[in-house]
Amino acid sequence: MRIATAFIFLLNTFLPWGQKNNFSYEELKEGFYKQYVNKDANATIDSMDVLYWASKISFKKDETEPKYYLCSIPSLHKADDITLPASRFAYLDEYIDSTGNEIHVLYWIEPKQHPHSKENEQLKKSLRKRYGYVTLSDSTTLIPAKWFSGELRFLESPFLYGNQFVSKRLCTVPLTSGAFCPKEKEAPAFSSWWKTGGELEFTIYQLASMQENGWRTPSDMSPQLKSEKALFLFSKEVSRHFDFSLLPDDYRSKKFTVMLRLDETLKAHLYALQPEELSIEDRLILTALSMAVEQQPAASFSGYWCERGLYPAIFLTVSVSKRSGCNFHYFVANE
Questions:
Q1: Smallest Cα–Cα separation from 51: which of 159, 137, 171?
Q2: If both were cysteines, with which of 76, 201, 204, 216 could 197 make a disulfide (CB 3.0 to 4.6 Å apart)?
Q3: Tens-digit pLDDT profile for residues 192-240
């Protein structure tokens, strides 16, 4: 009866879960296989707009490394009847007004591809005539993006993960006619959301901060160390809820590549990725593992950010052994 119940749970667990999420299980799995197994990742950052963020006084286009990339914003590319290609923008600190508010303005610089072609030079000329322009000390010409009102969303230092460009940080800025409007007191000039390890990393940090005589900030608690300690704690908790009596008497150890998919509450659900072909024993192990993961609290982990919002996949490897329990590690390609 125990095994039959486990297989019923298996069918429910490995079907797509949480359809309200922007990413389906199939899409996340396909991204994993594209990048890490088939080696044919096709996601490109070329289509994303570059955003430079600096002071107007110090900004120099050719000396500023692109660090921010804009999420897809169709209205940003519609300058009235002109459609803009993938471009370079600058969000610059202008000045402080009489009320003490900082004024920030979004400028269009040029297309990312072939900025000096005849067609793009004509585009610049048309925009300058319609919206005006300013020329900086390094001769860079900037055109104020007066056509855009809305929320500017951008990623900091995105990287490819599961065939999707993701970031640890998502930033948003509300703009009116291309400028931050300080009169809207309810709207902050800048908001950002950091990807952290969730509640487990916070718990690890708090425990490391405690001493008999008070609190301190751990000097050696790097983000990587916090992440590793959190995953170690997660492994121990999963092992505590894993039903090892389901395993055969002669069972030794097996290793799997799995995905934790976060739902809208940040609760993690486990899915198998590798091996592709699962034996009956493999399915039994993964069922027990999935049941143990379901016992963990929501927000133990957090996902990355991408153009579409939360990227809910966390790729891991896990070894299951009667002797050492369930040991999770972050997935590393070609390991």
A1: 171
A2: 201
A3: 556 555 666 666 555 566 554 455 555 566 667 778 888 999 999 999 9
Per-residue pLDDT at 107 exceeds 90: yes
pLDDT in tens, 241-268: 999 998 888 888 999 999 999 998 999 9
CB atoms within 10 A of CB 58: 12
pTM comes to: 0.83
At residue 157, φ and ψ (nearest 5 deg) are 50, 60
Using an 8 Å Cβ cutoff, are 314 and 301 in contact? yes
Q: SS3 for the chain, per residue?
A: CHHHHHHHHHHHHCCCCCCCCCCCHHHHHHHHHHHHHCCCCCCCCCCCCEEEEEECCCCCHHHCCCCEEECCCHHHHEECCEECCCEEEEEEEEEECCCCCEEEEEEEEEECCCCCCHHHHHHHHHHHHHHCCEECCCCCEEEECCCCCEEEEEEECCEECCCCEEECEEEEEEEECCECCCCCCCCCCCEEEECCCCHHHHHHHHHHHEECCEECCCCCCCHHHHHHHHHHHHHHHHHHHCCHHHCCCCCCEEEEEEEEEECCCCCEEEEEEECCCCCHHHHHHHHHHHHHHHCCCCCCCCCEEECCEEECEEEEEEEEECCCEEEEEECCCCC
Please name the residues in contact with 325: beta carbons below 8 A apart, sequence gap of 6 or more: 235, 236, 239, 242
The Cα–Cα gap between 155 and 307 comes to 8
